[in-house]
Amino acid sequence: MELPFEPFRIRVVEPIRPTTRAEREAAIRAAGYNPFLLPSEAVLIDLVTDSGVSALSVRQWSAMHGSDESFTGSRSFRRFEAAARELYGKRHVIPCHQGRAAEHLLCRAVLAPGQVVLGNTLFATTRANIEEQGGQAIDLPIRENADPTSLHPFKGDIDLDALGRRLAEAAAGSVAFVVLTLTDNSGGGQPASLANIRAAAELCRQHRVPLLLDAARIAENCYLIARREPEHHGRSPREVARDIFALADGVFMSMKKDALGNSGGVIALDDDGWAERIRIRLLVSEGIPSAGGLAGRDLECMAAALDEMLDEAHLAHRVAQVSRLGEQLAAAGVPVLQPFGGHAVYVDGRAFCPHLANEQLPAWSLTVALYVASGVRSWEVGNVLGGRKDPSSGGWRWPALDLLRLAVPRRVYTASHLDYVARSLVELHAGRHEIRGLRFVYRPPLLPQFIATFEPA
Ligand SMILES: Cc1ncc(COP(=O)(O)O)c(C=O)c1O
Prior knowledge:
The protein is α/β, with parallel strands linked by helices. It folds into two domains: 21-50 and 312-456, Aspartate Aminotransferase, domain 1 (Alpha-Beta Complex), CATH 3.90.1150.10; 58-308, Aspartate Aminotransferase, domain 2 (3-Layer(aba) Sandwich). Helix content is 41%, strand content 14%. The chain has 17 helices and 16 strands. It has helices at 21-30, 58-65, 75-88, 99-110, 124-132, 160-169, 194-206, 218-228, 237-247, 272-285, 296-308, 312-331, 349-352, 362-374, 383-386, 415-430, 448-451, and strands at residues 45-46, 92-96, 116-119, 136-139, 175-181, 211-214, 250-254, 265-269, 344-348, 376-377, 379-381, 388-389, 396-397, 403-407, 438-442, 453-456. It has a seven-stranded mixed beta sheet, with helices on both faces. The longest helix is centred in the last third of the chain and has 20 residues, at 312-331. The chain binds pyridoxal-5'-phosphate (PLP). Pyridoxal-5'-phosphate binds at residues 51, 98-100, 123, 125-126, 181, 185, 214, 216, 254, 256, 265.
């Protein structure tokens, strides 16, 4: 794919330093074979996440310099509130420090123990917050979502038959809400179509169950709708976004992904009762309702980004950058998930390392091997993140896909950086049978990917 040129000039740079293989071997051993625990200086190209790591724009920086840091009544909050109301079309705008804080507040405020939350593919922190509150999180993705060879353009769609059935069979009040995660980070960064979102909203309306959006990567989802869904060809991402938000009862959003922030999150909704309960929770754990634990400069940064994130040239370059990396890998026979989503390329760990059993954590072992070979840090969305102990058998239940994720930070890396990533992974693929498996040394009960440690199996 031809890459459009970067729609920006680079005015600030940060040096990166290559390391030797011996240094990387020592570093990953010291990190308990968990790339998340590596010091960032030991990393050459960091694709561990696209979250909180965007390069800020001149517009964001100048807004931040003009921020109002008053404890309360700050104009920075009012600016953010106005921008968020304009985009989401909801009356209540509640800032908080990041996406999982929004999930936590929401679950604490409106989810009762025993209630169910249905979704296309809930993100790990959403699931953890639901489960911690005594709720049950159920994913209802379409069948193609778990098929790495399917080229379905909207693998982030929810299975409408399954959703309709669950909603019809559920006792009144037992489903707390439905969440559409746009795009679906845990299923490959795949978008949902506007037709699917519309139909899901209609089902929720019929059954009087609120529909919420996890909008962390809504801009990429909207751009991909305008590219892939024939009825919406040629529409601007902003127009598509307005249509989507109008279908939902509420939105929660990490402002660290598409919204180009180093920190921040938000909840936007219309329901006065929910808003009141969330604000009370917010006061207990996050901060005052006009800040949510953020500085005025963070609110300014987010206000600017709500407009900037939907810029078509930015999205066209970003999505092309991700696709080009994926195409280079696919052309060399590396098993990648297709079609490519908005923020990351996902490599099928089980297909890459067929000599490793699930217990040997193929995709996780691959992230470690890639780091040692090249200094490129990636992350796993697979057996470590999604594996669960089966209480009846004592064995493991593994997720449908075991993936290595190459998440591309926004406006940070150039084409030659990503060419190096592709070359490194292609070389590793040639010698893949030498990749050694790993096993857990320490596995915490929740969100193991952040703090678990491992050793060679
Ligand atoms: C889809 C999705 N939802 C929620 C979150 C949580 O957001 P945060 O990292 O800001 O807490 C993430 C983070 O990666 C995510 O990808």
